[in-house]
Design goal:
The protein contains 16 helices and 9 strands. The chain is of the alpha/beta class. The chain has 2 domains: about 10-105, Winged helix-like DNA-binding domain superfamily/Winged helix DNA-binding domain (Arc Repressor Mutant, subunit A, Orthogonal Bundle), CATH 1.10.10; about 125-360, Vaccinia Virus protein VP39 (Rossmann fold), CATH 3.40.50. The strands form 2 sheets. The protein has a 7-stranded mixed β-sheet, with helices on both faces. A two-stranded antiparallel sheet has the order 1-2. A hairpin with a 7-residue loop joins strand 8 (about 345-350) and strand 9. The longest helix is centred in the N-terminal third of the chain and has 29 residues, at about 10-35. It holds the Pfam family WHD_Rv2258c.
Length: about 375
């Protein structure tokens, strides 16, 4: 259907823009395979480079498939190559690529979202129904590997920076943790934060709360391995957060915007916190408007998409869900909600993070 008002150059550029998104999606699938099959890990151990044959041989894989994967990776500038014109090219990872792709304890390690890509994308199958009914899906809909993906996404940074930078930035908290404090990690996921704090502060008691069966299973498995007697993981629907002694510190890491009832949760946090206690609120660095998010955050389209597939879906997983979503809890909104829940002090901590903002919230 010809339309004279269509500018062919604009059309070409628009089409290119749309297909470059597909290039990103398909290459993301290839990154998932590189991680899952140990291709990056194997390449990281051989900084001088590998041929498709040696890489396939090292991992017991079929050379033809590995070669095609390498061609995708080099075209996407993820894997490097000494000489593309060679008959049998040698491929390698730069030291920076090794950090992002193959070093799970490096703060820049980025394989978490790629790990759970199949589960995240599988949500597309039930999304049309959610768009019609309004009802989303909680984190358990992503299966056990979804919980592992979350663990791989957030933990590298936490493991590196939480104890040396975040805890000391909270007024009086380090001393309390050393002496013996009661701590809750709400929305604890696979439990990495509670386990790290539990190991570091043996005189304190930690309770991780989550409503995801898969996350709790993973957390309890890791707890068995760590053998810590000061950490436990529970479902708040079985043991209410308000039920025991009040807490000195409550942490919520990247989860308030996922909750169906964040307003009620903030009231629960206030009710469960001692009057001299601290709530460490960590959530996505979101702006107050669509305009600001789109113009100031280069990852806005990724984050809004993840919101539909995961965060907002979780926040809409009950009929009366508030539906905040990934970019739904800006600093000013969090402050307003915290004040309404009974908190009087709300400070942004001077912690640099690519995605998250850190707040010290006090009664
Ligand atoms: C993005 S994950 C973050 C997990 C963990 N804090 C971390 O940083 O790795 C969000 C978690 O919040 C949990 N969650 C959602 N609503 C919850 C609620 N009402 N109470 C407790 N956990 C909840 C989800 O099950 C999920 O495990």
């Amino acid at each position: 259907m010809a339309n004279e008002s269509i500018d062919p150059d604009v059309l070409k550029m628009f089409s290119f823009g749309v297909f470059s998104k597909l290039e990103g999606a398909v290459t993301s699938g290839m990154i998932h395979l590189g991680d899952r099959l140990g291709l990056y890990e194997s390449m990281a151990t051989r900084p001088d480079g590998v041929t498709s044959d040696s890489l396939a041989g090292h991992l017991g894989l079929h050379e033809r498939w590995v070669r095609e994967w390498l061609h995708n990776q080099v075209a996407a500038r993820i894997v490097s190559c000494h000489d593309l014109s060679a008959v049998d090219p040698v491929f390698y990872l730069t030291p920076e690529a090794v950090c992002v792709l193959a070093t799970p304890d490096h703060p820049a390690y980025g394989m978490g979202m790629f790990h759970r890509l199949p589960q995240t994308m599988a949500a597309l199958n039930y999304m049309p129904e959610s768009f019609r009914t309004g009802l989303g899906h909680d984190y358990d809909s992503h299966g056990p590997e979804g919980a592992v993906g979350i663990e791989k996404s957030f933990e590298p940074w936490n493991q590196n920076f939480l104890i040396p930078y975040v805890v000391p930035a909270l007024s009086g908290v380090q001393e309390k943790l050393e002496a013996g404090a009661r701590v809750a990690d709400i929305g604890c996921g696979a439990g990495g934060l509670s386990l790290l704090l539990g190991r570091t502060f043996p005189h304190s008691q930690f309770v991780g709360y989550d409503i995801s069966v898969h996350a709790l299973e993973r957390a309890n498995e890791r707890l068995k391995h760590d053998d810590l007697s000061n950490v436990r993981f529970v479902d708040p629907r079985e043991e209410a957060i308000t039920s025991g002694e009040k807490f000195d510190l409550i942490c919520t890491f990247d989860c308030i915007h996922d909750m169906t009832h964040p307003t009620e949760m903030m009231r629960t946090i206030r009710q469960s916190l001692k009057d001299d206690g601290t709530w460490l609120l960590v959530d996505i660095k979101a702006h107050d408007s669509l305009e600001l998010n789109v113009t100031k955050n280069p990852m806005a389209s990724l984050l809004y998409g993840v919101s539909v597939l995961s965060c907002m879906s979780s926040a809409m997983s009950s009929p009366d869900g508030e539906g905040l979503g990934t970019l739904g809890l800006s600093s000013s909104k969090a402050q307003r909600m915290a004040r309404d829940a009974g908190f009087t002090s709300f400070e942004k901590l001077p912690i640099e993070h690519s995605v998250n903002a850190f707040y010290e919230v006090r009664p």
